[in-house]
Predict the 3D structure of the following.
Amino acid sequence: MSLLWLRFALGCYFISLIYAFVALTRTSELFSRIALHAASLGMVFHFVSLVELFVSGQIVWASVHNGESLLAFLSMTFFMIVYGIYKTTSPGVVVFPVVFFLTFVAAVDEQPVLLTQYVSHKGWLVAHIILIFTGYAALVLSFGASLLYLLQERRLKAKKASSLISFLPALEVIDQIGYRSLLLGFPFMTLGLLTGSVVAVTTYGHVDFLDPKILLSLLMWAVYMVMVFTRWNSGWRGRRAAVLATFAFVAALAAWAANYFSTIHRFAAS
Amino acid sequence: MRYQLIGVNHKSAPLEVRERLAIPESRVPDLCRDLAAYPGIEEGMVISTCNRVEMVTHTVNGSADLRGFLHQHFHLTADELDAHLYEFREKDAVRHVFRVASSLDSMVVGEAQILGQVKEAYATARAVGAIRGQLDQLFSRAFAVAKRVRSETAVGSSSVSIASVAVDLAKKIFGSLEGKTVFIVGAGKMSELAARHLMAHGCAAIFVSNRTFDRAVGLAQKFNGQAIKFDDLHATCDRADIVITSTGAPHAIFRREHGEQFLARRKNRPMFFIDIAVPRDVSPDMAKLDGIFTYDIDDLQQAVSSHVADRRHEAERAEAIIASEVESFEGRLHTLDVVPTIVSLQDHLETIRQAEIDRARGRLGHLTAEQEIALEALTRGIINKVMHTPITTLKTAAKESEVTTVVDVVRRLFNLREKDATPPEKKKEVGTRR
């Protein structure tokens, strides 16, 4: 049943996805409202799906597909929080495709893949997953914001009359969305990595720093930290910030993909 | 009607050319004098705003060498200048002046400022004696037409001034303007207006800097702001989010290196430069810096073009008013052209009549009162009958284009003198209309 709800959610997210592509070329108040309602409805289905998974006791914390589903839901939650504060749906241009992709992958098949390793401290693992996913979701949003910032900056510099009626919010608003997600995501990401190492230590007795998963996670964290630092120290934004954010995002994707190569963080069919 | 006009505006010439033609306010009176004294020109007036430089003249024979005047006074070669110039004569010149005064030729159609600027240019030219009868008539009518356009159409009602466009742009950059700081560089009317708009939308603090410090203090007081010495401009400017600059400086006062310093001190927070000065105060390479947004007067025009479309319909109505006003002005001018001829014709015949009556009296000896009256009536009757056809012909010709030919023929036939050309009632009329 949980999967069925998730597929309903996917259907709703698909509408939002179309918005994401359309919004790049034209502005339509009506369409952005439809996308918002579709996304909200999708979140309801998604929430039901997660709750059902949880109460039915089927939830497997270390399952990749459940993880993807959770990450998609958290990203959407962030998007809605931003909408609540800034009344703009434009971050959806980046968030919706990411959420759709994650939900799509999570909803394709019944068979979740699991961590092969036996984990002794389940509490730490749950904390690790929730923290790190919140960090990821914030990263997705700040990556999206930095791209939008770049886009809006270009439009303003191009000085075309049409730039005045663009769908994007003011430059400084986009900047705030990005910066706040960055600041919010960083502690989650840090704590997520710390709890992850606790899990690793309790399971294996040590942390293998040469493992691709850990290397890439550390790289991602380092870029994340550089982003926070350059922003806090010298106010980097615009092009330079977008380059860093893209780098962090790619590192995050690589770290996720490393699940398939890592010896200690490996998922496999149950 | 020998009006002749030459100039450039924001449509005909890029900012780079207008910058080179820009005339400092202090030079305008001299230029008006030079223009009026130029060969072939009777009266002259110079309109110089940030969007246009125009020489409006009344010439001796309708074909004065205005291009030559421009080349001589602006040290520009024909190659550099001529492609951007427009030149209007007679009716077309009248139409153009009406359109300019009515703000139909403005960058922001319907904005009210241009009328004030034209009035100022008119007053300046009058003060130095460069305007006498003909331009006086033209501009008095132009001001009346502008008033009519404003009251009968909605062209000016939803006027999108540069100031409000600047506010829109600032909002695109900063979102809310609450608590933002504005820096006015060069205490001009335009920047004051823009600042007022920004303050109305929530901008908090304001700085004013001007080469004449007293003017900065004066303006700062109006806004409860702070006056900054011009020498401290670059040291303080980074405190402002929005800089409105409109100095008369011949070179850019904000260059790339300044921008880099500002950004470093502001931790890269964005800055918005509204440059309404011609020549520009902000050098173009500033815009290449991330986080610095500069809009010069031409960019603002692009930004307002969408608003202009909304008012196209009203502008069409305004154009119709202008067209009918041009016709009636032309008609009136032609009527005025024939009035002196009619008057001198009447004077001429009256003189003949009086002389003939005197001669008749000498021959007839004493006349009774009744005979006097009969003689008076007889001579007057003949004169009136003779004059009837020429006067009617003149009045009809006044409405047509061959008026000058007819006037010439009548003057030659009756050997009328040129000095009678300006009748007393015409002078009076011009005087009262002011």
Notes: Confidence is low (pLDDT under 50) at residues 419-434 of chain B. The interface with chain A takes residues 168-169, 171-176, 264, 266-270, 287, 290-291, 293, 295, 299, 302-306 of chain B (CB under 8 Å). The first helix of chain B runs from residue 15 to 21.
